[in-house]
């Protein structure tokens, strides 16, 4: 069976989680209160479409914040978690945007995920949400095609993933139609085999990818340069320097052997991702309960 792995990204409130829920038939909460620069992600259980097995990773977005302190130690753990989920590579990137003016965030997200994180090696499509008031749904995309020519989108897919409220009877068939259209586009544009972003067969190790992408996140978030990973600084040293609690840093190192410089890009330890997810949950709980310590 063909394996398709899709990474979903885009600005906050554009409908990423709604889209993922509609594709997978799940019902994760659409409004999560995450604040601060974050690479937080969620891997949905795989679903079948024809002879394909599709896995989707939803991300929270790089621009949730701008107020308050930026929890760099949370961001670095979430990025490690996302990179761990990216171990088997991606077949397709799915950028989500609202049918409205193209924002600065749109360009920054594109640059981060398409150019920096996956280095232009993975095809990308654009899902345009909020097309429910267009008749036909394709008209906004038709009118605005020219605005997107500077991006390498394989296809612009007009969609509606709204749900609930008094309009639900109007939304439901549009969601179905959008799901069908998006699935056709995913099947047509996905790579035959997921393209890896690090590890065997690529030019970078987990560690190099982590450095490159973390430093890019620091730039996008406008964090001070001191947050960058230094030359020759181990991932462990970086985590400790950013204030990741020792237990979490230890766990990450132990279960992601690539994080140990000397191991380079050896084969993964089964279950590492799960463990790291637990660890990030632990870290996130600390943040949300406010019992943050420098242990
Ligand atoms: N009008 C409209 N609202 C949508 C659409 N897709 C999602 N929404 C709504 O936009 C809000 C944010 O959606 P969410 O999926 O959480 O966006 P995310 O932050 O990108 O994950 C929710 O209230 C959704 O119901 C759409 O196509 N049209
Ligand atoms: Mg979301």
What report would you give on this structure?
By secondary structure, the chain is of the alpha/beta class. It contains nine helices and seven strands. It has a domain at 2-189: Rossmann fold, CATH 3.40.50.300. Helices cover 40% and strands 13% of the residues. Strands 1, 2, 3, 4, 5, 6 and 7 form a seven-stranded mixed beta sheet that branches. α4 (139-144) links the parallel β6 (124-129) and β7 (156-158). α2 (72-85) runs antiparallel to α9 (272-289), α7 (235-242) runs antiparallel to α8 (246-255) and α8 (246-255) packs antiparallel against α9 (272-289). The N and C termini lie far apart (47 Å). Mean pLDDT is 85; it is low at 262-271 and 290-295. The structure holds guanosine-5'-diphosphate and magnesium ion.
Structural class by SSE content: alpha/beta
> Counting H and I runs of at least 4 residues, what is the number of helices?
9
Q: If you average the pLDDT, what whole number results?
A: 85
Provide the CATH topology of the domain at 2-189.
Rossmann fold
N-to-C span: 47 Å
SSE layout:
Blueprint: E1 2-9, H1 16-24, E2 41-43, E3 47-49, E4 52-59, H2 72-85, E5 92-98, H3 104-117, E6 124-129, H4 139-144, E7 156-158, H5 168-189, H6 206-221, H7 235-242, H8 246-255, H9 272-289
Guanosine-5'-diphosphate binds at residues 12-18, 30-31, 129-130, 132, 159-163.
Key descriptive features of the protein:
295 residues; alpha/beta; Rossmann fold; 9 helices; binds guanosine-5'-diphosphate; binds magnesium ion
């Amino acid at each position: 069976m063909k394996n398709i792995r899709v990474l979903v990204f885009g600005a906050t409130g554009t409908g990423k989680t709604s889209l993922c829920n509609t594709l997978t038939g799940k019902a994760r909460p659409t409004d999560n209160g995450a604040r601060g620069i974050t690479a937080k992600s969620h891997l949905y259980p795989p679903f079948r479409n024809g002879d394909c097995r599709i896995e989707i990773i939803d991300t929270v977005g790089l621009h949730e914040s701008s107020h308050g302190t930026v929890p760099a130690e949370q961001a670095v753990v979430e990025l490690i978690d996302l990179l761990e989920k990216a171990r088997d590579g991606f077949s397709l990137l799915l950028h989500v945007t609202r049918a409205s003016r193209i924002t600065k965030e749109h360009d920054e997200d594109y640059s981060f995920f398409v150019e920096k994180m996956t280095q232009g090696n993975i095809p990308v499509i654009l899902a345009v949400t909020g097309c429910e008031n267009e008749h036909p749904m394709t008209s906004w995309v038709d009118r605005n095609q020219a605005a997107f020519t500077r991006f390498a989108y394989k296809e612009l897919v007009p969609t509606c993933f709204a749900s609930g409220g008094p309009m639900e009877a109007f939304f439901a068939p549009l969601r179905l139609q959008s799901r069908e259209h998006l699935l056709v586009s995913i099947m047509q544009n996905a790579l035959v085999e997921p393209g890896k972003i690090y590890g065997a067969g690529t030019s970078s190790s987990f560690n190099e990818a982590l450095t490159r992408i973390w430093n890019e996140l620091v730039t996008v978030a406008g964090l001070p340069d001191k947050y960058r990973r230094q030359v020759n600084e181990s991932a462990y040293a970086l985590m400790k320097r950013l204030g990741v609690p020792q237990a979490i840093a230890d766990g990450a190192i132990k279960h992601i052997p690539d994080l140990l410089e000397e191991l380079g890009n050896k084969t993964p330890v089964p279950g590492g991702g799960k463990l790291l997810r637990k660890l990030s949950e632990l870290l996130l709980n600390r943040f949300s309960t406010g019992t943050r310590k420098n242990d």
